[in-house]
Amino acid sequence: MMGLMASDETRTETRTEASTDVCAETRAESRKHEVPGEAPATRAWTTRLLILGIVLAALNLRPAITSLGALLEEVRDGLGMSGSVAGLLTSVPPLCFAVFGVTAPRLARRFGPGAVVCAGMVAITAGLLIRPYAGGTGGFLAATALALMGIAVSNVLMPVIVKRYFPDRVGSMTGLYSMALAFGTSVAAAATVPVTNALGGHWQPGLAVWAVLPALAVVPWLPFVRNRKTPAADGSSTSQPRRESVRPAGKPVEQPPLKITRSRTAWALAVFFGLQATAAYITMGWMAQIFRDSGVSAGTAGLLLAVIMVMGVPLAFVIPRVATRLPHQGPIVLVLGLCGLAGYAGLYFAPVGGAWAWALLLGVSNCAFPLALTMVGMRARTGAGVAQLSAFAQSTGYLISIPGPLLVGVLYQHSGGWGLPIALMSALMVPQIVVGVLAGRDRTVEDEAGR
Questions:
Q1: Regarding beta strands 252-254 and 244-246, do their DSSP bridges make them parallel or antiparallel, or are they unpaired?
Q2: How far is the C-alpha of 231 from the C-alpha of 208, rounded, in Å?
Q3: How far apart are the first and last CA of the chain?
Q4: Bridge partners, 237 (sequence order)
Q5: Is pLDDT of 9 > 50?
């Protein structure tokens, strides 16, 4: 199956990714760092282990957030939080992603991407174990920030690892880990309340149980910590990403970083990433509470949130593959935006009667995330370019998204209802469509930014 995907992606991504140059760079690195005497079967095994590590890491990139969203009311009562403080809590994820995500490329160059992702999984495990029992709002926020730090560096490195080590399968591999991410997100949303009830009805063990999954994800990354090498798509072994290009003769030369802030496409992608992240974190932090305040039971509200998240499982695999076949991703952006506007309208006028339909529409709209990740891989030609663009777009985007969940909490507390917050969500969807269309144009940041 992976062979078919590789062949298919190779045919369809050539014009947008300049795959000839990238593959030449990957082959040059592979020859340089190939382990002498390593059997082909061993190299294939390490490649499969890398894919397993990517999938397991992706499963852990959202449960820390959606599990909290499902129990937000219980956590607020247990810690004595006001609506504004709860809004601050839902703004912590994008803040941490912006602050810590920008350090990921530098850490990857120094320690290797495998070591950084492995450390990220350890941080998630520790944060999720500590936060329910930290005592008080301050400790809860600090432990949450520790877990989110691990998520932040892994967020940034996923597109980098895919572009670098699977250059001819960007769409397929992005779809694979996006699908795993969506699956982990939806499972946490759906299962947190039932698991909490099964553990005695206390929210502390209901949140702490999610530390098991990142602990398991540490295991496949351990060999890459020891070796500081990661297998390339052809089964050879490469070291951490380096800012290199390849001359016609194949000799690697050092190149200065891109002046990424000069690229209009980079800015459009960063704003698009920020607005879709705003919608996503408002959804993960508040959507279950919106349904509960409308008269839906806690268990059903968790299931509705899970429906929103689970839509990303099939669509996160399909959308990147479709996007890589199109010279312009604007039409996909428009469809996703219109689904979001329809879902918010339904949530405003009939939150209970059409709850399942609105959840489906908002689930489709939330798939702007895998589309944004795919465009990160398509808007740069080289692994180094993708690393810079990924760090810039995600860090800047998460900074943009910080006020959204907090503002929703403030509007909810002062208005006493969800009318104004839903109006805000709808209004933000319009500029998301506009900048998404601009980011989807067929061009690269290397052409716009220069060096």
A1: antiparallel
A2: 34
A3: 39
A4: 231
A5: no
3-state secondary structure at position 244: strand
Helix (H, G, I), strand (E, B) or coil at 246: strand
Instruction: State how far the Cα of 357 lies from the Cα of 249, in Å rounded to an integer.
Output: 57
Task: Summarize pLDDT for 356-377 with one digit per residue, the tens.
Answer: 999 999 999 999 988 998 899 8
| CB neighbour list of residue 126: distance below 8 Å, 6 or more residues apart | 143, 146, 147, 211
Burial of 134 (0-12, 13-18, 19+ CB in 10 A): middle
One-letter amino acid at 362 equals L
Domain boundaries, the chain: 18-240+258-446
Biggest distance spanned by C-alpha atoms of the chain: 69
In this structure, are residues 321 and 443 in contact, taking their beta carbons and an 8 Å threshold?
Answer: no
Alpha helices in 311-418 (DSSP H): 312-323, 330-349, 355-365, 368-378, 383-401, 403-415
The span from the CA of 67 to the CA of 243, in Å, is 38
Q: Is 207 exposed, middle or buried (0-12, 13-18, 19+ CB in 10 A)?
A: buried
Give the number of other CB atoms < 10 A from CB of residue 173.
27
- Angle formed by the axes of helices 136-165 and 72-79, to 10°? 140
The tens digit of pLDDT for each residue in 215-247 reads 999 999 898 886 554 444 444 444 444 444 334
Residue carrying structure tokens 């489709």: 364
Which residue's structure tokens are 């009830």?
A: 197
pLDDT attached to residue 41: 57
pTM: 0.70
136-165 helix and 19-33 helix, angle to the nearest 10 degrees: 100
Q: What confidence tens digit (pLDDT) does each residue in 241-292 have?
A: 444 433 444 444 455 677 888 899 999 999 999 999 999 888 887 898 899 8
Amino acid in position 226: R
Does 18-240+258-446 carry CATH code 1.10.287.1080? Answer: no
Single-letter amino acid, residue 65: I
pLDDT at residue 103 greater than cutoff 60: yes
- Kindly state the DSSP code that residue 36 receives in the 8-state scheme: T
When the pLDDT of each residue in the chain is averaged and rounded to a whole number, the result is 81
324 and 170 Cβ atoms separated by less than 8 Å:
yes
Residue for token pair 């209970």: 352
3-state secondary structure (DSSP) of residue 220? helix
Distance of CA 252 to the CA centre of its chain: 31
CA 327, 329, 334, 339 torsion-angle sign: positive
